[in-house]
Amino acid sequence: MTSCVAKEPIKKIAIFGGTHGNELTGVFLVTHWLRNGTEVHRAGLDVKPFITNPRAVEKCTRYIDCDLNRVFDLENLRFCPDSPQPAILAAWEAEAGGNPPSLAAE
Ligand SMILES: [Zn+2]
């Protein structure tokens, strides 16, 4: 049986909006938190917001080359042209050996 309980305490959280570029609530919130992250900041947690698919957001379309919603894990994202994987890894690269987030939320 697979468990949903984390074995280690969660210290890094990635928040995504704009996985589908025509769903504007997430885009609005992530854009807001990128400008001012005080609402998502929590002591002891490293929380980073990301616009998941900036090209799709710019065109206000669900996706362009790849529906990221169908492949959303760091391993699968390597194969998507619009993958946010490089931005995710770069955001944490300078900190703690570049370990990716332990929790992703959209
Ligand atoms: Zn969606």
Automatic annotation (TrEMBL):
GO terms for molecular function: hydrolase activity, acting on ester bonds; metal ion binding. Its cofactor is Zn(2+). It comes from the Eukaryota. InterPro entries: AspA/AstE_fam, AstE_AspA_cat. The keyword Hydrolase applies. Keywords: Hydrolase, Metal-binding, Zinc. Residues 10-78 form the Succinylglutamate desuccinylase/Aspartoacylase catalytic domain. This is Aspartoacylase.
